[in-house]
Amino acid sequence: MMKKRIVPVLVAMSLLFSVATPASASNAPSDSNSLEASSNGIGRVAISTIPLPGSVKKLESSTYTYSGKVLLIYKKETDIHTPDYWNIAVMNDDGTNFKVIFSGVIPTKPKSPGIRIMPFQDNKRILLGDYVLECGPSIDSSTSAKLVPVVYPSTLVDDARITAHWSEIIIAPDNKHMSWTILRSDIGGAAAIGVLARKTDTYVIEKAQLISSIPTFKDDPNKPGYMIPNPLRGGEVKQFVKGGNAISVVGGKAFSTPDSVVQDLNTENTTQITYTPGYDETTIFSPDERLGMVMSTRFSNHTDPALFGLMPRPYGIYTFTDMMWPLYTYAVTGVRNFREGNIGPVLIDIDRSINESGYKGIQLTTDPNWVYYSPMSWHPNGKRAMWLEVYRGSGGSQMRIQKVSLLDYKPKPTVPIKPTTDNIPYGIKDLTVLNSVNPNVNGKIAGKASGYISYIRNGSSIFSGQTEVQYVNYSDDGVNFYNGYEKTNINAGGESRYEANVQLTGPKQGEMKFRATFSALGGATPAKLLFDTVADGKPKSYGYASYGGVTLNIEDLLE
Known about the structure:
Radius of gyration: 23 Å
Oligomer: single chain
Number of domains: 2
Shape: globular
Helix content: under 10%
CATH topology of the largest domain: Neuraminidase
Largest sheet: 8 strands, mixed
Structural class: mainly beta
Number of strands: 35
Number of helices: 4
CATH class of the largest domain: Mainly Beta
């Protein structure tokens, strides 16, 4: 079985076949007859489950190809217990014309999370992570398939602190450039890009560059003794966009919790796509890049951790990063394992998501027992998209493929493909810089008008550490002031605690006055919120956050 992601990669930026699958696709309309459907810019949608043949005993992953076929990887009854043995097939998205294109052993390499299936635009090859599957004459009508190993830069594989030499992989529409995310035990991870070059019996990644913020902070040139953050880049990579010259990543700018961001490759620009105080991850864009699907907790009232991001804090996406793992485990892993709730996906209008305050999009969850699982992908006609769902508590043994059909939407032309640039203004060609990054921080950030933020982080690894943020009359505009503190103590194998006592005064008023304590981040019931009373006479978790006329209480979140 493929190893699933353990650590949310936003940490890096600072430092499943169903037993009830119907015989034919069953439609469940969403917003079909509502006023919202006629005014949301998207219109009516119909959601269905794509039927699979009985030979698919355990579904592992699926995605659309550039020709509009469904590509899937799975196990049969006869090989379900055979390590590294996989079957890869294509079919139509109504379940017809199922065709196996590969069956065999795909050896798992050390430090590999397993397999992804990422089709090339040429529709002849599939990037699997550590291999490329070459199909002739095409993926759709393959009569021969050859497994060719991928050679990663040794600097980004061999270091003892690298726990996975890739956790996510994407291939650019130019069929040459590849980007991937690396996981490390000290700083969480980093993102890289390079050219995937075919050699005699391998593919070798050449011209590799790091595209993450390294280091996160630098000396403030205008304020000796202070520091300023570098622009935040290089979260978990999910999709090349803008014809191949930008990447959709997990990131953040305006809030302390993660949002979806597009990171340009040919400029230094980053664009925030979603604006939610809860937990959003990467947006997967439609071919015309006017719509997107995003994993989000926004429609899950009792598991959405919006309490933590409701009140904006200056540089919060930097200083709050140690809490991303507990929040991900609570709101995502926990919901997949045992906790009632959902994580989308959500269908969004990109322009409205960027520009319209409070915009939420269309919820695509249809059954409370089935939970979103990556990946998401779009049919090349821009009228359909699909994703995986796992049956809660099945541990990945029960997966299904969901499809949304856009009944009214009229797509614009697909964004033209352009050669992906190698001239990345912030790209780092010296790959060894990762080995000297210090994950610990001790410094001050000056307010533009007054005061400062003191930020101290100490930790031996991403699994254990302490963070303290002090706001001392901090103001960027001279009228709104922050005072108070945030404290974080991460212990992946025990209890992790976050405590906030922050006041925002001025025309914009807000307050964070709460404590959250989570149980261990592993096991069958990870990151449970704990409410038993401790030595100070208070519950381990209590309190509220208030901002913009909204108050959220931690007691409203599920254990």
